[in-house]
């Protein structure tokens, strides 16, 4: 059994992308043949030349909330930062609060000179705070004006344009982080893919901050995976299920899309309209039931995301690809470059046998 330390690699700090490229689809694209392990270096806008007629790309249309609120305590003027995690009801949110010692039940904080006021009503066992907000107007509109994007902790530069931490097809608000594999797409590129005979379908998974939490156990299977909300509507379910039954290649755009598709297949045996919470943990030894190929970014060492990639590509091939990416000075993490693990779209039994052989 592989251990967490087996997913570590050396990454020079200067390769951690601090800002998005001017042109979304100008990022590097590492093309990896899943069957042979062969690596080619491309540009993301080359993607239409790498797909085939009949391929189905499944993307996550979640939209990131500008969930970081900076305010002051009304009584003392002391500064506070709230990070919205989950909506409990119309006016109540589960949040992270800094500094936690000042965010005690009954205390009230002001944001935007009183445009928005938040009262701490409960401290949960894990330290998160429940906050009831008071305001006039529409909460989402106020949040859009006052809130900042909750960028990952490894990004230290301020983001000038909030939309650059959104995919161009983002639609359903609710994420604390972007599904970053999708940041490389442009409307024109999507149109070109469809013009080449590929189909697109959109699921929703709201990305939680747990995606950035390090795995702190030694053995992988001791890790407690975080839960995230997902949904698939009827139209999308029919498109994906039709492609699956026809044996067409299903290309998952991002680890979040992969987790959603594999959760539904595990729980229902087919893709159908549904919603719920998933804590699926995909690591080497996992048998994929629907995802053939994967478009993803380069992930943190010892993270659940690099483990998911390894489950599809194989541990050795994954770590070799990361070593190659460092050598070729790829940009890493949320605003970084991308990887396309390309499979020939083997049938389910054939793919599972191949995965077992690699592992």
What this model shows, in words?
The protein is an alpha/beta fold and about 350 residues long. The chain folds into two domains: about 5-65 and about 160-359, QueA-like (3-Layer(aba) Sandwich); about 70-145, QueA-like (Thrombin, subunit H). About 20% of the residues lie in helices and about 25% in strands. It has seven helices and 17 strands. A hairpin with a 5-residue loop joins strand 5 and strand 6 (about 80-85). Helix 5 crosses helix 6 (about 315-325). The longest helix is centred in the C-terminal third of the chain and has 14 residues, at about 255-270.
How is this fold's topology laid out?
Layout: E1 28-33, E2 39-43, E3 56-60, E4 62-64, E5 68-73, E6 79-87, E7 92-98, E8 108-111, E9 116-123, E10 129-135, H1 139-146, E11 172-175, H2 187-195, E12 199-205, E13 228-232, H3 234-245, E14 250-253, H4 255-268, E15 274-278, E16 293-297, H5 304-313, H6 315-327, E17 338-342, H7 348-358
Parallel strand pairs: 1-17, 3-12, 3-14, 4-11, 14-16
Antiparallel strand pairs: 1-2, 5-6, 5-8, 6-7, 7-10, 8-9, 9-10, 12-13, 13-15, 16-17
Q: How many runs of DSSP E, i.e. beta strands?
A: 17
Order of strands in the sheet with the most strands? Answer: 2-1-17-16-14-3-12-13-15
**Regions with little confidence, pLDDT below 50 for 5+ residues:** 347-359
Spell out the helices and strands N to C: EEEEEEEEEEHEHEEHEHEEHHEH
CATH level 4 superfamily of the largest domain: QueA-like
Per CATH, the class of the largest domain reads Alpha Beta
- Tell me the β content: 25-35%
Count of helices? 7
Structural class: alpha/beta
Task: Give a quick account of the main beta sheet: strands, pairing sense, barrel closure.
Answer: 9 strands, mixed
Q: What oligomeric state do the depicted chains represent? A: single chain
Rg calc: 21 Å
First-last Cα distance: 10 Å
Number of domains: 2
Stated plainly, the CATH topology of the largest domain is called QueA-like
Helix content: 10-25%
CATH A-level architecture of the largest domain: 3-Layer(aba) Sandwich
